[in-house]
Amino acid sequence: MSARRRRSLALAAAVATAAGLGATVAPSASASASEVPLSGYELTWGIKESYRNYVVTFAQGTFTPADGASQAVGNGPFTFTDGTGGYDSTTHRVSLAFQGELTIKSEAHGFEIGLSDVRFDSVDAEITADVTRDGTTQDDVPLATVTVTRQMTDMVTTLTEEAGAVFGSADYAGAVGDPLTLVKKTGPEPAPTTTPPTTPPTTPPTTPPASPSPESTPTATATASPTTKAPTTAPSATPPRTTAPATRGEIAGGTLGWGVKQSFRAYATGPVAQGRITASGGATQAAGNGAFTFTGASGTYDTKAGTLKAAFKGAVNFKGHEKNGTYGLDLTLTDLRAALDDGTGRLTADVTSLGGASQDVVLADLKAKSPTLAARNDVITVDDVAATLTEAGAKAFGGFYPAGTALDQVGLSVALTDDAQLPGGTGGTGGGTGTTGGTGGAGTTGPTTGGVGSTTGGTFGGSLASTGTDVPAGALGVAAGVAVAAGAGVVLVLRRRSTTAE
Description:
11% of the residues lie in helices and 37% in strands. It has six helices and 26 strands. The strands form three sheets. Strands 1, 2, 3, 4, 5, 6, 7, 8, 9, 10 and 11 form an eleven-stranded antiparallel beta sheet that branches.
């Protein structure tokens, strides 16, 4: 523990003790009259959801909270209790230290990490903890920076370079962590009997005050990098209609933009799989390993009923883990179909993996922002449709993502007449070769690789190979698995490879 932090808490403890005894604490170097003691706070933070998933699935590991720490059900975030510290009315600093320890252990991947003495400081805008590994403890390791807000709930966190060393992936540096929440769980604090400062009141608020201007000057790394997103709408060269468009009929053409999942694209082309992505047959991929555009839409629509069914041309193939001309990852998606009814629906595709094929696999449940479908200049455009991985979709991807995982958003535009102009300037007939790119884009939200795979190198040992993804690299690099989609017969096989081959 740093000397600075120990002194800060010692001062807070001295004030609290004196207040509890009804004593008068004279302003001095040992106890500032501007500092109000705080106690009874809880800190909730999950580190990073993809890391928790990695530990309990691919690493076959466990999280063991103790001494006041707990974990929410369903492999949820962690809560540390009995937070004590102080609030300085001069600097507006809130400094709190929490009880509880957390042990993260995986015998399969050979690591054990202990976190204790978790601390939060509103002016430093960071979370620190004492980290124990291989019998050695390092005090006050900064794990994340925090975008501090006055409410102090759901604050954005960004993992540090040190967190990458602790959790086994250098790519964690700059990645967005789980949100952080601070709440007070006990009654009001006793006010010090010293002469109270003019501001703020001596009795601290239920929610600890934030630093002077955190909202106006957030840390540079505290927010996710923007996701590259090609527009799905563009000014139309067609003049506005003078007659009302048809409300139902056949689709004349259109495009669908979908990136599948940014982390899966990064994994396929990254240093572990060392593979490639190929779009063909009417599908294209945006630059920078971006999202895909599928063209040549056909199907039906009914704007009054709020229904749309569209099939799109194009194929996307993911290859990786090549050895002697054989691929451990060879997954193709074709014949993508989107169906919406009153704002909800599903996304299906034909799936081929290592020679095994299945048709009409429901990959994702869809949820549009609005239940209505509106045509403008004979074009229906639906942007930012949320896509959630289904059970069949999870099995189609070999269980790399659990059902319920958010996939890249979907965007589609369909032409209702042959001469309608789709976004990107293409006509309705044949769907054109639009480059809307859908949503999801190339994405620069930061890597989310989980895992601690080796015990060599660095203060906290080495790491699994960096993938820049939230697919655990070590597991995919050596796993041999077979998953059959329920009712669909989808097979995805990752052939066994030695770790040295990676």
